[in-house]
Amino acid sequence: MSLSITSLANIAIELQNGISHQDRFARLIRTLRQLLGGDATALLRYEARQFRPLAIDGLAEDVLGRRFALDAHPRLEAIARAGDVVRFPADSELPDPYDGLIPDHTDLKVHACLGLPLFADQNLIGALTVDGMDPLQFDHFSDEELRLISVLAAGALNNALLMEQLENQTPAVAAVPGATRSSSEMVGLSTGIMQLKKEIEIVAGSDLNVLITGETGVGKELVARAIHRGSARAANPLVYLNCAALPESVAESELFGHIKGAFTGAIHHRIGKFEMADNGTLFLDEIGELPLTLQAKLLRVLQYGDIQRVGDDSSQRVNVRVLAATNRDLKQHVLAGEFRADLFHRLSVFPLHVPPLRERGDDITLLAGFFCEQSRVKMGLRQVTLTDGARELLRRYDWPGNIRELEHALYRAAVLARAGKADGEIWLQPQHFQLDTDAGVKPASVASAHHIPAVNNLRTATDDFQRRAISNALDANAGNWAASARQLQLDVANLHRLAKRLGVK
């Protein structure tokens, strides 16, 4: 079997159809998977020594949120270095980044793997990956045919990147020393987060002050970093100050600095945050906690650009853009006389609101994948995979602590799941997540919690319940373990292990 002119033409047509780049990319990999007969395909964007999935087909949804660093994924590094079609042998000892991430094949290793690096003007911009469970899956296709596919895909991806750069009107990341997209990236494709990204792109290129609002843990500092990164000040410092952690006695010195002898303990000159951020950006987190006396002095800096060190009679000019963040309703604090109205209006020239995680839908799954990959790398594991049951639990939870709570929950779950696992491949189950279900899970998922009878031994009761559940599932599915695993929302390999431990198998 080989690719016909018609099939290649179909790929080209798919890349012209669709109302968005995302739609075109989805069509491309869907068509490619059908043509090559693989079990999973992915289009990846390359930047800052990592691959970021743009579109996937046949892979778990959380893959879209994962970021694959070359240093942590030798197969992807091989694709990035190759410059041509890469065919990995079926017995390759290099771990596959998608092991455990192909639904219905989670208990099997990927056997056939193709990598097509994508170039624009000899620069690597991305890759296509095609994976299959059959070791001989792609042997019938020649390198020449696969190169044609990579050329078509590279052209489409390069056009999308050029359009993005024109729309953003921002310099390339490489123009900013040390900058990477991953350091200020907001993972998510929900309507709310996409709108926020557009607003960030609009305001970043200006020099306006920005007030960032949102609940604790939604990622307000991430928004501030994205604004700074997209601004003309990006090569200069972004200085952070948490106003809530400032004792009033030292707050003025922290902001504006002091001279030697200004007060007891001032044994040398010290510059403040405003001087540190000169020609750059100052991010004032929890601005609502700033004392009223300091609010007046901050207002003066915003109006005239002058600062005065504590104990110094002279003033000096600074050129600083101020980004402020709060989880409070500052309008109400203004009405209550707890926050200056004139400062509020100065700061909120361009307000940005970060939506809570519970309003971001499938972004929860993408973020879970992002943190799974981060925990895998930090803990030196081969694989960290979410079971269907774990994904469902995460989607149903309300996340009062937002993204910060999700991140901590994933890391705790990975630590618990790793206990006793020598092979470094862990599956995150619902029981690994220590969530406050009484406060955070939607009522439908805990409706039966009030009817659980009292027990004397929780472990024994849990084991008995799991034995009955497994036995009932096997009876309902005529002894089919794979079907029973799907019903129980477990990986089939984990079901076999659990059944063996419980004495069902």
UniProtKB/TrEMBL annotation:
Pfam family for this entry, one: Sigma54_activat
Sample GO molecular function, one term: DNA binding
Domain Sigma-54 factor interaction residue range list: 186-415
PROSITE patterns recorded: SIGMA54_INTERACT_1, SIGMA54_INTERACT_2, SIGMA54_INTERACT_3, SIGMA54_INTERACT_4
GO biological process: regulation of DNA-templated transcription
Entry annotated with the keyword DNA-binding: yes
Source superkingdom: Bacteria
Listed NCBIfam families: PRK05022.1
Descriptive protein name: Nitric oxide reductase transcriptional regulator NorR
Organism: Buttiauxella warmboldiae
